[in-house]
Design goal:
Distance between the termini: 47 Å
Shape: rod-shaped
Radius of gyration: 28 Å
Strand content: over 45%
Number of helices: 2
Structural class: alpha+beta
Strand order of the largest sheet: 1-4-5
């Protein structure tokens, strides 16, 4: 049996073990609150800049220096999709879940 095949066969159980160990890190808790947050758009204002360069001569040498200059501002939109949110009793997790699942769970259910 070639060495590569042996190495590949040995790697399969190790991979399965790692996947099982990672699967236990899911968020658990009791649902304390359900809330629907509709889709929304927020806006921020960001600066618009341009680069300006000047050239000067001194002692027969040319020196070029550049710096950034703010020329104005523009508005940037940030879209947030709708969220069917549940909050867990650990006060650390607020999860957005599928609407079909959100409709089925109730406050007090174990997650």
């Amino acid at each position: 049996m070639p060495i590569r095949r042996i190495a590949a066969l040995a790697a399969v159980p190790a991979t399965v073990l790692l996947l099982v160990a990672c699967g236990s890190s899911k968020v658990h808790g009791t649902i304390t609150e359900k809330e629907y947050k509709p889709a929304r758009t927020t806006w921020t204002t960001e600066p618009v800049t341009k680069r300006e360069c000047t050239t000067s001569r001194r002692g027969g040498k040319t020196k070029r220096s550049c710096h950034t200059v703010q020329t104005g501002t523009h508005r940037v939109s940030h879209r947030h999709p709708a969220c069917w949110q549940i909050e867990l009793d650990d006060d650390a997790h607020e999860l957005c879940i599928a609407k079909a699942r959100w409709d089925k769970v109730r406050v007090g259910d174990r997650w």
